[in-house]
Every structure is written in structure tokens, then in C-alpha cells.
Here is the input.
Amino acid sequence: MPGVVMIELSAVIVAMDKEVPRVLLVRADVSGNAGGDGQEGLPCGPFDPSGHRTLDEGLRRWVDQQTGLPLGYVEQLYTFGDRFRDPLERAGGPRPVSVGYLALVRKTEGKSLGEGVWNDWYRSFPWEDWRAGPPEIIDAVIAPGLAQWCERAASRPERQLRRERADLTFAFGDSSWDNERVLERYELLYEAGLVAETARDGATLSGDPRDQRPLPTGVPLIKDHRRILATAMGRLRAKIKYRPVIFELMPPSFTLLQLQRAVEALAGGRLHKQNFRRLVAHEGLVERTGQISAQTGGRPAELFRFSRGVVLKRPAPGVRLPVRVKPRRKSSRK
Here is the structure.
């Protein structure tokens, strides 16, 4: 059905499981419909103009139908409408325009999630987790792959432009790592042919039987769902710096170390303990509960809760993370 547009609703649902940021995925068939036995994807479904009063309502209904999970905090991310983002369109079907959403929930143990399964979001983005230092995959796979991609450029100016782009996004040479550039890094790897979706989409579009060997650059998702997830990761990493959204993922009471570890898990890097606590105290984000937790694996620790009054007192309360770190890394240049 060329020329026909279908509105699709997609949800990036994030929860914290101790020190692991989880995203809720469903199994999908080749057309991207939930309940299949193919690749994983985000909960999604078409918008029904006659049955859904709003886009938000339609999203919540699809998530409830596929996972049984009620959503609390939800915000619209972006509208994704690239051509041939869906295999149905490639087969002559309608062109889907997906409205992506970010939802934050508290993970509940033992609850049946229907077709949904919680997954570590770094399974799809192993180069984004710097908590133990620069990920090995960058030097072992990504840097040499991008260097080859740069050399394949048709002209010297294009080769230079590719090198500068690689250096900026992956912090090669003197560049600094910016943890918010998640989408830019994924799109660069897609363009360079270093993620599985490149061969999958290219082979389908052109009929060219490209190299189908599995790539070690993360678990692919259906359609362009890894791109939607990358957008959500970058948005959440940015937002925790100036809005108290981290507390949508925390239990009602927590220790300061648990809060720090949750922020580090989302941001993909370690923070100085005392500096973090000074920042939290300065922003007035938490208040004492008067209770002590003995379940810390060490000395008992004081429990805190989110201070909701801070939203009224401060225009942009957040944890004020450092935006960049400056690691010493190799250049993408040969």
C-alpha cells in the first residue's frame, strides 16, 4: 500500500534491578508483531484512531496487553519515520511512523509480564558501560572497524570528515567521552556496517547478499528499535542531571550508596562517593527516614527517601553529574 501511513506506538520501559538498568522487551515475529518467536523488540502496536482517545492511552493499552505492566511516568521521546524501518513496508505494506515513549517503572519481583522479559540494556550497547573503565570492545572491534570505514571514503575530505566524526563520538585521541551521545554512536556504527542491522536492512532493500556473519557489537532488535532505545538512553542520561527522574526507579526508601549505584548504572560511569553525596545534599534531593538498613552486606546504613518538596523549591533539581570524562584513548586514524 504505497503512500499509506500507519502510526505506531513504541515504549522503552526502564527499571533498575540493583545495579543493572533493565529494559522490557518482547519476542516478535518477522513483521514485528508481539508474541512471535523471532528477535526481541520493544512493546509496540498501531494507534487506533477509533479506539484510542489519545496516543498516550493507546501506548498504555498496548503495553498492558503485551506485558500486563501498568505504566506510571511516561514521556514522549521522538517520532521515527525513516523509510523502510519496518519489513512490512519493504514488502509493499504501509509506511509506519513510530511515536517513541520513555517509561520509568519500579521492577517488581515475581510478577508475570506476559510476553515481556527484562533485559540488561547494555546487551545491545556494550560500548556504553564505562563503570569498569573503557570497554574492551572499543579497542578490539570498534576502533579498527571505524578506521577501515574511514579509509574506504571516496575522497580525502570525506575521509577526514569520517575520522573527525569517529573521534568525536567515541572519544578517540584528545576528544572527551560524552555519555549522552548514545544515538550518535549507534548511528555511526550502523553507517559503518558494524552492527547487525546494517546487513539485515541492506540485504533486504537491495537484494545484495551481504556478509551475514554475526557481529559482536551488541544484541540487535527488530525494526529500528535499537535506535529508539539509544534515543531513550541518551535522553535519560541527560535528564537525570537536571530532573529528579532517578527516583521514579528507586524503592520508597534507599541508602545513599544504592542511589549512587543506580545513577552510575544509568550514566555508564563511576562517581566519586563524597562528591556525589555533597551534590545530593546541596540539591536537597533526599531526606532522612529515621530508619537503618541492615541489608547492605556490610555496616548498617541510614535510609533516605526522595524529598518531593524540592520540585517546588528548585526549578531544575537533579544530581548534576559531570557531563564528560576525558579518557586516554587511541585515535581512529591508521
